[in-house]
Amino acid sequence: MENQLLSSAATHEALPDSFVFPPDQRPPASAAAVALPVIDLSRPRDEVRRDVLEAGKELGFFQVVNHGVPEQAMRDMESSCEEFFRLPAEDKAAFYTEDTDKPNRLFSSTVYGAGGERYWRDCLRLACPFPLDSAATRNSWPDKPERLRPAVEAFVAAARALGMELLRLLCEGAGLRPDYFEGELSGGDVVMNVNHYPPCPDPERALGLPPHCDRNLITLLLPGTVPGLQVACRGDWIRVQPVPGAFVVNFGHQLEVHSSILFLM
């Protein structure tokens, strides 16, 4: 595993050929960063649900502030995950696998598509079944650093509650019953990806992730210290300017499909 994790190396002097993408495969981006719509969830509910609906229809991406996820839970999540990736390779070896059927795993340099190019990131993926009241669930997560498990539990519980509230606001704005997406549609595991991007020796020729659509209902992204999120908008790619303390929200493919079916009926 030591040679497979990008974060295991102290520095990377040169970008290996397997990480180099041809120019036509690198999404172009506008020169200026763009601020996504910022929705203050502490405002009157009728205004918030209108803004959530409009942002979803216009772009599918927006940011939320005053969202109710405790700042301490966000900071603990960030710092404990940073500490995890700084651990010696032997402390992470039990979780490293290329087996995509494993619900909890650590992996690196994923290959997507037929070109064979690799993406410059390490990722810790954790499955979080709800409710989070099972010792077996918590014990399936890494046990180092010691504070990682309680940090994950507190963060995921608060973030999931925020996601469900955003879905309720969307339903209210669209004239649906507020609990439409509750139950089976949102009853699966919360899947948390902790993406780690080590310093890259040639970032202009590499990518951290491919252009993609999230397949789930809703994604909440807590931006880290490494910028780089790009969003497709009107035929262009725009660089997102994160707002401190905000979550970036992305309505996923399942939500798009369900909303299209509903509005066609």
Automatic annotation (TrEMBL):
Q: Which SUPFAM superfamilies does the record match to this protein? A: Clavaminate synthase-like (SSF51197)
Annotated Pfam families: 2OG-FeII_Oxy (PF03171), DIOX_N (PF14226)
Asked if the Swiss-Prot or TrEMBL record annotates the protein with the keyword Oxidoreductase, the reply is: yes
GO molecular function annotations of the record: dioxygenase activity; metal ion binding
InterPro entries in UniProt: DIOX_N, IPNS-like_FE2OG_OXY, IPNS-like_sf, Oxoglu/Fe-dep_dioxygenase_dom
Keyword field: Iron, Metal-binding, Oxidoreductase
The chain positions of domain Fe2OG dioxygenase read 187-265
Among PANTHER family, the record links this protein to: OS07G0169600 PROTEIN (PTHR10209:SF726), OXIDOREDUCTASE, 2OG-FE II OXYGENASE FAMILY PROTEIN (PTHR10209)
Q: Which family does it belong to?
A: Belongs to the iron/ascorbate-dependent oxidoreductase family.
Name of this chain's protein: Fe2OG dioxygenase domain-containing protein
